[in-house]
Amino acid sequence: MSLTGSSAEGGGPPGLDQMKQGVRNLRLGFFGTLGLFCIFFCAIQLLYYLYGGLLGLPGVYRADRAWPWLTSGAWLFALALPAFFCWRFLRRQDARNFELLARQWDSWRWFDYGVDMFGTELEYSADQELSFARAAGLDPQDPYARNNLGSVLLSQGRIAEAIGFYQEAIRNNPDYYKAYSNLGAAYARQGDSERAVGLYRKALKLNPRDPYSHLNLGIALARLGKNTRAAEHLRQFLVLAPEHPRAREISDFLSGLGLRSGLSS
User: Fold this and answer.
1) What gap in Å lies between CA 214 and CA 24, rounded to an integer?
2) How high is the pLDDT of residue 135?
3) SS3 of 217, please?
4) Any domain includes 155
5) Nearest in space to 43 (alpha carbons), one of 78, 73, 75, 72
6) Which of 10, 50, 163, 254 has its CA 20 to 30 A from that of 36?
């Protein structure tokens, strides 16, 4: 039986809440910059207080007062110098954040183009591969584009490349169950059912109700001759996805194993 396959991630561009969060992130550095300003201010005040008189600098603390008062020179240096450096720092940070936000938005647009090709004549085509590849290239931390790109490559028979992108998706999001399940499907295509079983189990640990992981795990266990455990997962697949186009095929396969009885309706 050869039903092992991968599942892709659907979705679209980020919604309004995501965009608002991205804009808010642009200003998060303000508080850090304010903290730097306070540190610089206090440091310059202390230097003036300790060493200003010895160096002959203008505007130092006057020693003839019971309480040390700042003169105009101390205020000028203590305020202007850190303010200038903090302003430069904040400008550079804002420029970097705007660039990252723009790249992320472009990544989501390309991702959306690729998702729209599912169910059309462009599904698993070179155009869909290009869309997901561009999305992945624009956002190095995006696991979903890498997962979908791996699924396109796997469908084209480029198993080694698909494995690489699934592994990248897992590194970017260790809790992404679909990437584990798809990586298992890729290893199963290479004939490594033992490794595939471990990955399917990891996917089900993260999401016990994923029908495709149950399906793929059941098939892998059947290939290893572990029919009883295979039947348990294949039955669970039919419970979770009774309308799946291959549900009848799975049901017939279970009958062939002699383990059809006990299937939930």
Assistant:
1) 41
2) 92
3) helix
4) yes
5) 78
6) 50
Q: Is residue 1 part of a domain?
A: no
Q: Within this chain, do residues 165 and 184 fall inside the same structural domain, yes or no?
A: no
Helix 72-116 to helix 29-55 angle (10° resolution) is 160
Q: Which pair of tokens denotes residue 192?
A: 């490594």
Q: Which of 10-19, 112-121, 215-224, 234-243 has the lowest mean pLDDT?
A: 10-19
Residue 42 has what pLDDT? Answer: 72
Give the per-residue pLDDT at 36.
Answer: 66
Q: How far apart are CA 97 and CA 6, in angstroms?
A: 35
Among the candidates 37, 68, 100, a domain finishes at 100
Q: Are residues 164 and 201 in the same domain?
A: no
242 pLDDT above the threshold of 80: yes
Q: Is the Cα dihedral 197, 234, 203, 156 positive or negative?
A: positive
Structural domain includes residue 106:
no
State the total domains in the chain.
3
Can you give the residue range of the structural domain that contains 232?
A: 175-265
Among candidate residues 173, 188, 213, the one where a domain is terminated: 173
Determine contact, residues 99/133, Cβ cutoff 8 Å: no
- Whether residue 61 lies inside any domain: the answer is yes
162 CA to centre of own chain? 17
Same domain, 254 and 184: yes
Inter-residue contact 79 to 108 (CB < 8 Å): no
Nearby residues of 224 by Cβ (< 8 Å), 6 or more positions away: 193, 194, 197
Helix axes 177-189, 211-223, angle to 10 degrees: 30
- Of 73, 16, 20, the closest CA to residue 44 belongs to 73
